[in-house]
Hints:
Layout: H1 19-35, E1 43-46, H2 53-66, E2 69-75, H3 82-96, H4 103-121, H5 123-132, H6 147-166, E3 171-177, H7 184-199, E4 206-212, H8 216-223, E5 231-234, H9 240-252, E6 257-258, H10 260-270, H11 274-288, E7 295-296, H12 298-321, H13 325-336, E8 342-343, H14 344-351, H15 359-367, E9 371-373, E10 378-381, H16 386-391
Parallel strand pairs: 1-4, 1-5, 2-3, 3-4, 6-7
Antiparallel strand pairs: 8-10, 9-10
Helix pairs in contact: 1-2, 3-4, 3-6, 4-6, 6-7, 7-8, 10-11, 10-12, 11-12, 13-14
The structure holds adenosine-5'-triphosphate and magnesium ion.
Amino acid sequence: xxxxxxxxxxxxxxxxxxxxxxxxxxxxxxxxxxxxxxxxxxxxxxxxxxxxxxxxxxxxxxxxxxxxxxxxxxxxxxxxxxxxxxxxxxxxxxxxxxxxxxxxxxxxxxxxxxxxxxxxxxxxxxxxxxxxxxxxxxxxxxxxxxxxxxxxxxxxxxxxxxxxxxxxxxxxxxxxxxxxxxxxxxxxxxxxxxxxxxxxxxxxxxxxxxxxxxxxxxxxxxxxxxxxxxxxxxxxxxxxxxxxxxxxxxxxxxxxxxxxxxxxxxxxxxxxxxxxxxxxxxxxxxxxxxxxxxxxxxxxxxxxxxxxxxxxxxxxxxxxxxxxxxxxxxxxxxxxxxxxxxxxxxxxxxxxxxxxxxxxxxxxxxxxxxxxxxxxxxxxxxxxxxxxxxxxxxxx
Length: 396
Ligand SMILES: Nc1ncnc2c1ncn2[C@@H]1O[C@H](COP(=O)(O)OP(=O)(O)OP(=O)(O)O)[C@@H](O)[C@H]1O
Ligand SMILES: [Mg+2]
């Protein structure tokens, strides 16, 4: 058979659509390339799981490298503080690009990076001490962030970006994926650092591109009020033309075509979700094992669907398994409505609680990316089929 060209759960071979989003990034890069200056405020792509945030950032990373950028990539995680990871990622990027000076000054750079890693890695102690003294009555409790980590990070990013530029590169590009899991302290340091770098933007040839779940904008604004001046871009499901392209472009590259009715069926089933398109494409391919020159028809799609649905059920099961009892009650109430967008009042009523009393499970489920707010107090599930899955759990 021709090799399976689909990539469920991995960066796609070809990114379908997303032209305007890529242009947003490229505009920032162009500023760095042309003026050698900071590429604007923090750029934040936000979307539920599986919509294509990481894929977009990875594609941008590849383009940026052609433009002469050195890029550092951080996948934020709850297990590790983000800022030391960021410093390490910058170091790795500089080393890979062979941008670090050789000899004695190279050694000084490495020692400095180690020191900065330590400096940005312990914001907790300082912040805790400051929070221990309650703010004067009437003053809002904004977390006080130590200046040391900001100054350390600012110095590092300035020097690293200048180093790249001085050696003939375009500048430094930072990617922070899964930004929503970064602590408020880390977000605050990052935002303050960027604000300071913007104060001297002509000498800071760098740009920062980030992605996270739909809670990210709110979390950033909470971490620092000026966080709201970041550029927020919501990623949506793919339109029909782009959804078809996800299936056809990589298949045609290995000599396999899709018949129209088969394509229509998969596009309808996936409802524009990139992950589902890749998943169904992949399971169809594995069921049929087409040779180059073959075409995929309706019968092939039917043969592949059960495996795709099993995989999806496993995902749903994992989300259900990670939910607390109260969150499960919330999900059951939400699923029972059988509508796409469900009001808070209806969920509360079905749970037999006051509307105000369901805030905690609601926030947690949003933070986990299982549901998302769609305005006016409405929420919906972030993956198609999850409501049906929950309704099917009648034994619970
Ligand atoms: N524009 C696209 N064209 C083709 N495939 C895509 C596109 N966007 C995403 N995909 C595919 O969809 C799946 C999910 O993409 P990705 O991991 O980038 O999503 P994500 O938003 O980062 O999800 P998560 O929040 O879980 O990290 C992957 O299998 C990827 O191959
Ligand atoms: Mg991702």
